[in-house]
């Protein structure tokens, strides 16, 4: 909620409910109150709780910038997309955003509950990222995909990812893959896109994130996008912060964990 506005801010008033990722150039990671650039937040739709709103920004922005990049549509020629880690926070939002297009979305998940969640997010097909991807896709009648969006394990899965991508396809990733052997990528002339959600702010393009979030808010209000809260922890304390980190770092959580003040 907006508690105060600066002289340079516009579009918001004290008392407005807003959502955003914050600003990596400013202090306040675990603070109860933070000062942010007004261009990186958007108004929370009426009827949406703070907890549900908190589940949206980081996933929406990361997925949008990685998959759509500087436009509102997929790159030309992209019709089949593989989302590695489709049950996670970013993967959940990526799947939903992709299903607003005409794309056929393949999600990866390894456990019954994560497979069920990925399907609920809209995935047309769910495969196991702990097994070879290519045979699973071929069994479903898919020889190759046009774009892979990898949210985790990119370095370890690189050979499998390259195998399922068509020549001149696209690989977008958001984790730190470590050293990568790029020979196979070069052989297929694949485009490679690394995404870090605060890069636009650091580059002076803060306004794009507010616009993306405003559009996401409209999508939520219209029922085209759903919040992804699966666990809500009460109170911003050292204990809830430890619990939240433990859940995320386990690699077994689905959707989003939120701490409610």
Automatic annotation (TrEMBL):
The keyword Cytoplasm does not apply. Keywords: NADP, Oxidoreductase. The keyword Hydrolase does not apply. Pfam families: ADH_zinc_N. It comes from the Bacteria. Residues 1-259 form the Enoyl reductase (ER) domain. This is Zinc-binding dehydrogenase. It comes from Actinomycetospora atypica. The lineage of its organism: Bacteria, Bacillati, Actinomycetota, Actinomycetes, Pseudonocardiales.
């Amino acid at each position: 909620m907006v508690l105060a506005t600066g002289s340079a801010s516009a579009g918001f008033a004290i008392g407005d409910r807003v959502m955003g990722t914050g600003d990596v150039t400013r202090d306040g990671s675990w603070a109860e109150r933070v000062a942010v650039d007004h261009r990186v937040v958007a108004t929370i739709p009426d009827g949406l709780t703070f907890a549900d709103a908190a589940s949206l920004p980081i996933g929406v922005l990361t997925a949008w910038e990685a998959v759509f990049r500087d436009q509102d549509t997929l790159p030309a020629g992209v019709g089949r997309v593989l989302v590695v880690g489709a049950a996670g926070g970013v993967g959940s939002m990526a799947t939903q955003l992709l299903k607003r297009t005409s794309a056929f979305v393949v999600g990866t998940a390894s456990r019954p509950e994560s497979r069920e969640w990925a399907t609920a997010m809209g995935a047309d097909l769910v495969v196991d990222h702990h097994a070879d991807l290519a045979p699973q896709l071929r069994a479903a009648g898919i020889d190759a995909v046009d774009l892979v969006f990898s949210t985790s394990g990119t370095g370890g899965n690189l050979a499998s990812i390259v195998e399922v991508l068509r020549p001149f396809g696209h690989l977008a990733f958001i984790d730190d893959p470590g050293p990568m052997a790029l020979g196979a990528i070069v052989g297929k002339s694949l485009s490679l896109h690394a995404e870090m959600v605060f890069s636009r702010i650091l580059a002076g393009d803060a306004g794009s994130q507010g616009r993306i979030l405003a559009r996401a808010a409209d999508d939520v209000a219209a029922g085209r996008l759903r919040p992804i809260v699966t666990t809500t922890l009460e109170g911003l304390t050292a204990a809830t912060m430890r619990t939240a980190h433990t859940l995320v770092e386990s690699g077994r959580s689905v959707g989003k964990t939120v701490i409610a003040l």
